[in-house]
Structures are given as structure tokens and as C-alpha cells.
Amino acid sequence: MEPPAFRSQVRLSHMPAPSATALLDWYDVHARRLPWRVSPEDRKLGILPDPYRIWLSEVMLQQTTVAAVKGYFLDFLERWPSLPALAAAPRDEVMAAWAGLGYYSRARNLKACAEAVARHHDGRFPDTLEGLAALPGIGPYTAAAIAAIAFDVPAAVVDGNVERVVARLFALETPLPDVKPEIRRLTATLTPQKRPGDFAQAMMDLGATICTPKRPACALCPWSESCLARQRGDAETLPRRKAKAERPTRYGISFVARRHDGAILVRRRPDKGLLGGMLEVPGSDWREGAAPEVAAPFQAGWKSVGEIEHTFTHFHLILSVKAADVGDRPPPDDCFWLDAAAVAGEALPTVMRKVVEAATGRSARRTRRSL
DNA sequence: CATCCGTGGTG
DNA sequence: TCACCAAGGAT
């Protein structure tokens, strides 16, 4: 058998193996207080969180920062306090409430998942990995997180934080995503039978506050004496990642028709693909090179009001914005008039809020809940 | 399995 | 400023 291509770091004899107990002791003192979380003190009293809240927070937290999620989580919880409430909600209202959070397939799947649990599971989330992973929008990570945090199932919960912590702890040189299976295996060996929910949350807190991507605070880490990367002195360079493809720039045209009362002409995008199910103003497709030719939604005194730029996950977008003030008239095609007062609460993605702002000079951003 | 899917904070 | 990347999932 050939040795692995990457350097297999040897743990020095004076280095203790990383123990769940050391991490949990740290967590008991330093756990973050988060709106969806049950504190370690309460969990020790046998109190487990509402699976609905854990599910909702976990879906929102997919590729999204805690700071961005907090306000949305509180808004959703206030509006739909339980799974049956969300299952009964109109889908467009859920999309509108999600607007600005990104990755809108999450909102579509959130609604679909709520309906599936209401219909097929009597309104209660399954407590097994298999049952959870069969639901829309719940993959390996979220299934493990809900099982561990909401039901104290000793599942290996591996998110971006855990990947970083484990890659450093064991000095794994293989780049992501190839190293994922190895990280999953090692995480499983670390995960304790007792307090697996707190262990999962502790791993994520450690990654978010101590074992950070840049400038990790190794001096404060409960596992510093066990960390092979720290022993080697290159914790900050781990985990390795494969180079990502560069982002091309696409171009397009957007038309903002302003009615005398301030209403804006919009249409709903198809369910699948980019910004699926969200609203947009009429315009061209978005292509590399130059904006495609496209007719305005109707004849009017269109004037160019400048360009807006927006960066998506895999391309950069430059939209030329045209605006016109028009009288009251029936909306063309699949469009409808959106009242000015309704803009803030509607399902407009951030890129479209930029477009509307460019054309109206008024802020179209959502007012953030004060936290 | 590689690609597609948003946005905002951060250093 | 800008590259990085965050409690990933679906296809």
C-alpha cells in the first residue's frame, strides 16, 4: 500500500489527543447566546430546543453569516411561530420575507419542507438522519445538525467551521473538497455519545470565534495543545482549497416604469434557476460581452439613468438602467404594478432593489430589524 | 462530480 | 479595495 500523497502528520508524544470533554468545558463558559439556541446550562437540565426553530435557523445559516440571519430568524419566528403556521403560509409571502437573504431555492424548499412535515409527519420533524435528509432543502449537514442539536443524536456535524477546525487539528494537507470524507471520518471519531448537540454547537462556536479563517486565536483555544497545525506553525494556511474559477461579467438592460403614483412595473421570475420565484423589473437576458437587444415593455420616454453592478456567486453583473414616467395603463404581458409602499416588503432580490434605487432615487432596501 | 445558486461582512 | 468566505443543497 502506497502512503497517501499528502504528508501524514505525526502527533508528538507530549501532545494530548483532542478530547470532546476539553471542548465541552470550553463551551460551557464561552457558548454564544443565539436566538435559536438553548444554553448549555438549560440543556444540562434536559431542555432541548424546538426542532422547528433549529431547522429554520439551520436552513437560514446555510452559507450565510449569523449576523445576516438573526433579524430574518426573529421576523420569521414572529410571523410563523410554528411549523403548521409556516406550512399554511402563502408561498409568495415566504419568498417576500426571505428577500435579501439570498439562495432563494432555500425559501422554496423551506416552504415545501414545512408542507411535507405537516402532511406526512403529523407536523413533527423526524428524529433520524434518514428521515430528515429525505426532506426538501435538508442535506447531509442540516440533517446531522438537526438530529444532533434538536434530538441529541450523536451525528457527525460537518460544516465549514468544522472543516477548518479538523483540517487544522490534524494538519490535513489535501485540499477541499477532496478531503471532505477524511474530515467526516475524523469528526465522527471526535463526536461524543454524551452531549452531541452541544459538541456540534461547540465546534461551530470554536470555528467562528477562535479557529477563524484568518489570524486564529490559538492562545485561547481549548485544543491548542492537541493541534498539529499549530504545532507546525501554519494553522492559518489550512484548510487548503482548490482554486476556484474566475467570475465572468455579464451585461443586461433593465426598464423601470414609474407610474404617477410611484408604482413600479414588475414581473415574477420562473421558479427554477437564478433568483427563482422572485420579482424583477422587465429587461433583457444577461450575457457576456454586451447586453442583448430587447424591446422596452411599452413605448414611453425611456431615459438612461446609469448602471448598477452586482456580484453573484459565479458571475458579475452590470445592468444599464432605463427609466420612464408613464401614465396609468394596464400592465403588459406577465407584468403587474407594484405599489411604491409595497416595494420594501415584496420579494425583490437585492440586485433589483439596486435597479429600483437607481431609477427612483429612493432607498428600496429593507429596513433591518434592530437587534 | 462539477456546476449552479446571493448576499454582506471582513481583513 | 477586493478577495475571501459563511451553520450547503440540488442537479
TrEMBL record:
GO terms for molecular function: 4 iron, 4 sulfur cluster binding; 8-oxo-7,8-dihydroguanine DNA N-glycosylase activity; adenine/guanine mispair binding; metal ion binding; oxidized purine DNA binding; purine-specific mismatch base pair DNA N-glycosylase activity. Its cofactor is [4Fe-4S] cluster. InterPro entries: A/G_AdeGlyc_MutY (IPR005760), DNA_glycosylase (IPR011257), Endonuclease-III-like_CS2 (IPR004036), Endouclease-III_FeS-bd_BS (IPR004035), HhH-GPD_domain (IPR003265), HhH_base_excis_C (IPR023170), HhH_motif (IPR000445), MIG/MutY (IPR044298). PROSITE patterns: ENDONUCLEASE_III_1, ENDONUCLEASE_III_2. Residues 60-209 form the HhH-GPD domain. Binds 1 [4Fe-4S] cluster. It catalyses: Hydrolyzes free adenine bases from 7,8-dihydro-8-oxoguanine:adenine mismatched double-stranded DNA, leaving an apurinic site. Keywords: 4Fe-4S, DNA damage, DNA repair, Glycosidase, Hydrolase, Iron, Iron-sulfur, Metal-binding. One of its GO terms (biological process) is base-excision repair. Its EC number is 3.2.2.31. The keyword Protease does not apply. PANTHER family: ADENINE DNA GLYCOSYLASE. Belongs to the Nth/MutY family. Adenine glycosylase active on G-A mispairs. MutY also corrects error-prone DNA synthesis past GO lesions which are due to the oxidatively damaged form of guanine: 7,8-dihydro-8-oxoguanine (8-oxo-dGTP). This is Adenine DNA glycosylase. It comes from Pleomorphomonas diazotrophica.
